[in-house]
From TrEMBL:
<protein>
    <submittedName>
        <fullName>Uncharacterized protein</fullName>
    </submittedName>
</protein>
Amino acid sequence: ISPIADLKDLFKPLGMHIVDKSLSGHCHLKKTCAKDLRVLTKNNGITMGKCPNQLRRDFFTSYVNDPKMRNVDAFLCHHACGLCEAFMAFNKSLIVVASTRFEIGRHEPDRWRSWIENL
């Protein structure tokens, strides 16, 4: 929650607005906990669940016509940065910042390789 808070402070004078919908267990400290999410949850958001391809498809289908999502210029992912996989289908810029460990949520060798190949 601290790295995104720093980025919000950094980008605000540049006229950039960051939508922060945190899945962190500590999001309540900054009042940034994700609410009213569709598809992604605290349980599947970091690992993308047992069937990540289906989860990505469901996520895209659920948000492709969402007015807020259509207004986004880029997606910023950093903890877990692997969550950027959910946003790839939107064909917008991805900003991946490994604020701690790059492999969070991708601990199995096949999932790790797949994440690297997707980038």
